[in-house]
Amino acid sequence: MKNMYKQSLGYFRKNLLNVLVLGLLTFLTSFMYFFVEASIDKNLAWLSTKGSLSKDEKALLAALNSNKILASSFLIFLLAITCFVFFMFYKKILI
Predict the structure, then answer these.
(1) Handedness of CA 27, 33, 38, 43 (dihedral sign)
(2) Of 85, 83, 93, which is closest to residue 5 (Cα–Cα)?
(3) Domain ranges across the chain
(4) What's the pLDDT tens digit per position in 5-27?
(5) pTM of the predicted structure, to 2 decimals
(6) How many CA atoms lie within 13 A of 56 on its CB side?
(7) Which of 1, 75, 78, 91 is the least buried, fewest Cβ under 10 Å from its Cβ?
């Protein structure tokens, strides 16, 4: 097991750019989702404090709900892309 860790660490050092791209892809995927989700939640909390909503606020509420679904689907698709890139990266290691 120790030899496997040593070999993986050596490969990562040789391919530092690949490792940085994988890390950046993973970080940006999560950051994008949580940034959008936090701003949507903040606006939803603001709308929930109001007693009655105007026509524009109802449209904003509908848009926020659809944006929440859109953010979730983007997270799933970007995670799938990230998993594919990781698979291709590790497939290259194992060969």
Answers:
(1) positive
(2) 93
(3) 2-94
(4) 888 788 778 878 888 888 888 88
(5) 0.64
(6) 0
(7) 1
Q: Is 33:71 a contact under the CB 8 Å cutoff?
A: yes
Q: Per-residue DSSP letters for 56-95?
A: HHHHHHHHHHHHHHHHHHHHHHHHHHHHHHHHHHHHHHH-
Distance from first CA to last CA of the chain, Å, rounded?
18
Handedness of CA 89, 72, 66, 36 (dihedral sign): negative
CA distance 56 to 49: 16
Cβ neighbors of 85 (< 8 A, separation 6 or more) are: 22, 25
Q: Kindly calculate the radius of gyration of the chain based on its CA atoms and give it in whole angstroms.
A: 21
